[in-house]
Amino acid sequence: MNALALRDSTPRDPQVKQRALAKLTVPGGILAVAESDSLVHGFALATDRTPPNGVATAHLTLLAVDPTIQARGLGRALLADTTRSLEMAGLVEATLSVLEENVAARKIYEDAGWQVTGKGVFEDSGRPCVHYLLSLRH
pLDDT tens across 71-127, in order? Predict the structure, then answer.
């Protein structure tokens, strides 16, 4: 929650925490966690968003790293670990949406091969976002 508050330049919001916890309980989720000494330093969560009769698709729902250790490669490592897990699970593609202004995160995604597919707004905040797609079949 600290990472989200810092990213959004807002105080910690209990509603954000509740929405994040709800995402963690979605069946079929793939979770990567970076921890040491019982402290969580970051995590990534992807959920199955395969449409009926559609291509096996995951959605990267959350990727967060403790602000005190950001810019040290942990986000990239979590993204790579999650991508490998999605491939192993047989998913064909993955999607994500990120705040348009979050240039650092967008660079991580683009460096990892994610392609911009369009722009929109987040339903919960109305803030502008960029949509991405990654083919998991090489």
Answer: 888 999 999 999 999 999 999 999 999 999 999 999 999 999 999 999 999 887 788
Q: How far is CA 108 from CA 26, 71, 79, in A?
A: 25, 10, 9
Q: How far apart are the C-alpha atoms of 59 and 47, rounded to whole Å?
A: 5
Position 71, amino acid: A
Tokens of 87: 């491939």
List the strands of the sheet with 93-99, edge to edge.
30-36, 39-48, 57-65, 93-99, 128-135, 115-121
**Which residues lie closer than 8 Å to 39 by C-beta, 6 or more apart?**
none
Pairwise CA distance, residues 75 & 6, whole Å: 15
Buried b (16+ CB within 10 A) or exposed e, 5-38: eebeeeeeeeebeeebeeeeeeeebbbbebeeee
